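Deviation from plan, reported transparently: 4'-deoxy-4'-aminopyridoxal-5'-phosphate complex.
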Amino acid sequence: MDTVAFSVENVRKDFPILSATVNGRPLVYFDNAATSQKPLQVINCITEYYNNYNSNVHRGVHTLSQLATEAMENARLTIARHLNAAHAHEVIFVRGVTEAINLVANSFLSLVPHGWQVLISAMEHHSNIVPWQMAAERYGLKLRVIPMDSNGVLDIEAYDRLLMEGNTALVAVNHISNALGTINPVKQMAEMAHRAGAVILIDGAQSIPHMAVDVRSIGADFYTFSGHKACGPTGIGVLYGREDLLMAMPPYMGGGEMIKTVTFEKSTWAELPFKFEAGTPDISGAIGLGAALEYLKSIGLDQIASYEQELLEYATAALYEMGGIRIYGQAPQKASLISFIPDGCHPYDVGTLLDNYGIAVRTGHHCAQPVMDFFDIPGTVRASFAFYNTKEEINLFIEALRKAIKMLR
Ligand code: PMP
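Because the crystal trials were delayed, the predicted structure below was used instead.
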């Protein structure tokens, strides 16, 4: 698909929900880091599947099954190209980032000798902490944390020291923090991990919707994202893994689809990617996710990134102008989300009052409790922008925020 000049007015027409009203006001949807809205191109693609060729995949000889299989495998190819993966079979369909990380934690770490270490960062989502904790306990590994500073920037020298201090099997870090907006130097971190003989898993939940990602140029061994944050459906996501690693890893779940042969004594495994896709997959989800990435590409990932930076700068300036607002996450490289607390207000109350004005923001710990503990706060208000948001919406948000703060102070 060719990229045409970016027009937010045109883009908004693709998203039926953006003309909804909430509490009698036009919806202003600033909760994109939790999940994005879906364009007609994705909704129609899923409807078309159910209306015209719904069928189970991979083993059917009949026409519908072949159509469904072809559509699903085309989606895999689209995703592989989107990520610049070397092979389509390096793309494993999973439920989302959470499942992908559990898969790697259970399967890859089972191959690691006792006493080795796994490094994560101080700004991870719970889904990039808890599975490693559980697996570290099971496999006798150490889990260590790369620290950050008060701007929300990772301490790369400390990372270097941690890599040298023990046998590091794996580093797991987010590309973009969902709590602070920091864009982490993942290419540099991958190089450093490799120099130390470790592999790196990058959680791309917050990057895939906002920027072009090339797994080979980054040097990612594993890269994962969830469809629902990238204009795709819920319940589907991707684990990209380097072929040689995936080949060496044991299956995570057993069942249909992932076997070559089964007897009561022993089973053998299917080739990649099916070895890691037990059971009937989320067929409509996979097809919808392919359509979502095609859609993002048609808008232009670089255009999305630069327009969202404009929104970020505009909203950040407006918040500073208001005064009495503390912004958490001041990294020089930041994605389009702002975590903040107005002085003297509880984030939850701010979010509830904003909802009265039709403005959807997230409040709470954003599944990153260690980040909240680091700043010694209960949570933040988080406004996260997508390419279909506008400066006019930011003005409405600022106006409503002024009123909310007045009521609360
Ligand atoms: N990592 C990050 C950085 C996230 O923002 C999220 C979702 N908030 C996740 C992981 C988990 O994604 P999911 O719930 O789709 O598995």
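DSSP finds 14 helices and 17 strands in the chain. We consider this an acceptable substitute for the interim report.
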